[in-house]
């Protein structure tokens, strides 16, 4: 792993740095390459362009780690607004939403989990009314059990709700077995947070090997695997495993982030695969951007230039 990864991931959670950096406009070079804009209109416009290109979308209203009930409520309202706007734009056949439970109340006092569940339910209901779905993003390992618990509750009423598992966690292969049941939508990613060695693989090779083991479980299972990676080897292995398990395109999907490998997103879609692009939007882009820089520290100088010239 890059030497800069851990420090950048720790900075991702620094409130002080966040305050300074978020004064940079979303239009600044590096931010704009990962985040299409701040408003629902910006997000729906980006979704429309991607759908017109044959891609699917999942919209993420940026924000995380709130301990404030009012902030959680504003996030829910932003999602309800986005779902209505997607409906008006006729995009809900191709676009869903991704939700971080820490943005809708998971950390708000002792009843935070209950609040997050109720808020997630409201978003799931609105999504269903618009004919689309919700996926629960996965955050750091301290929230995994809580998030999977809330997912279980939500799936009783909204079985279409997507889960996310992270191959860097040692527990994830077992979680894949648990979640590989019929109708279960599971996004598999490598994982984007700073995690201790007690719970996570530290070497890139170990994370990749775990990713392949998890893919084998998901592709041979009864669920709907969502292969979230830009790594050409993981994409190729997913294709091989899908074919080996007799899966047709459409019985699984690829997912990539907005602005990363867009030509590969289009190439896969043109070859008949389902490809979903994760589109983050909003003013709270700091944590998201820092995690992307941690994955690609080469972009750091580009980021610093944007910051200095703001
Ligand atoms: P890597 O080995 O990191 O990258 C492979 C190649 O992709 C690189 O060589 C490079 O060419 C390209 N690339 C990767 N990152 C960048 C970048 N930032 N800028 C430019 N090029 C890049 N993580 C979570 O912890 N929870 C989630 O809920 C979650 N949801 C996700 C949803 C989607 C749709 C995707 C694609 C990722 C999500 N992630 C999530 C992030 C994920 O865990 C990884 O941190 C991220 O995808 C990088 O891993 P990778 O598999 O692309 O492989």
TrEMBL record:
GO biological process terms on file: L-proline catabolic process to L-glutamate
GO molecular function annotation: nucleotide binding; proline dehydrogenase activity
Keyword set, alphabetical order: FAD, Flavoprotein, Nucleotide-binding, Oxidoreductase, Proline metabolism
Nucleotide-binding as UniProt keyword: yes
Pfam families: Pro_dh
Annotated cofactor note: Binds 1 FAD per subunit.
Source species: Nocardioides acrostichi
Reaction it catalyzes: L-proline + a quinone = (S)-1-pyrroline-5-carboxylate + a quinol + H(+)
Pathway membership: Amino-acid degradation; L-proline degradation into L-glutamate; L-glutamate from L-proline: step 1/2
This protein's record includes keyword Nucleotide-binding: yes
Superkingdom of origin organism: Bacteria
Annotated positions binding FAD: 138, 166, 190-192, 229-230
EC numbers, comma separated: 1.5.5.2
Cofactor list: FAD
Residue span(s) of domain Proline dehydrogenase: 45-302
Stated name of the protein: proline dehydrogenase
Binding site for substrate: 100, 291-292
PANTHER family: PROLINE DEHYDROGENASE 1, MITOCHONDRIAL (PTHR13914:SF0), PROLINE OXIDASE (PTHR13914)
């Amino acid at each position: 792993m890059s030497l800069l990864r851990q420090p950048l991931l720790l900075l991702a959670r620094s409130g002080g740095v966040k305050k300074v950096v978020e004064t940079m406009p979303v239009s600044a070079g590096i931010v704009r390459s990962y985040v299409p804009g701040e408003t629902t209109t910006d997000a729906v416009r980006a979704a429309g362009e991607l759908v017109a290109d044959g891609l699917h979308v999942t919209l993420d209203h940026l924000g995380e780690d709130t301990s404030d009930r009012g902030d959680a409520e504003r996030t829910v309202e932003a999602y309800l607004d986005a779902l209505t706007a997607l409906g008006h734009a006729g995009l809900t056949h191709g676009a869903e939403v991704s939700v971080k439970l820490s943005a809708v109340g998971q950390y708000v006092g002792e009843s935070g989990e209950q609040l997050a569940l109720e808020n997630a339910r409201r978003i799931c209901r609105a999504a269903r009314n618009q004919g689309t779905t919700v996926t629960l993003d996965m955050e750091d390992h301290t929230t995994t059990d809580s998030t999977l618990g809330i997912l279980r509750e939500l799936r009783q009423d909204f079985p279409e709700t997507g889960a996310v598992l992270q191959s860097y966690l040692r527990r994830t292969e077992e979680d894949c077995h648990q979640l590989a049941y019929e109708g279960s939508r599971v996004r598999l990613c490598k994982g984007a947070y700073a995690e201790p060695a007690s719970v996570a693989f530290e070497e890139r090779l170990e994370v990749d090997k775990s990713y392949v083991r998890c893919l084998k479980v998901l592709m041979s299972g009864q669920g709907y695997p969502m292969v979230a990676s830009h790594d050409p080897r993981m994409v190729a292995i997913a294709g091989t495993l899908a074919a080996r398990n007799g899966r047709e395109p459409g019985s699984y999907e690829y997912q990539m982030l907005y602005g990363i490998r867009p030509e590969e997103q289009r190439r896969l879609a043109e070859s008949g695969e389902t490809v979903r692009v994760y589109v983050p939007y909003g003013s709270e882009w700091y944590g998201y951007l820092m995690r992307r820089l941690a994955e690609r520290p080469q972009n750091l100088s580009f980021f610093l230039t944007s910051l200095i010239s703001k």
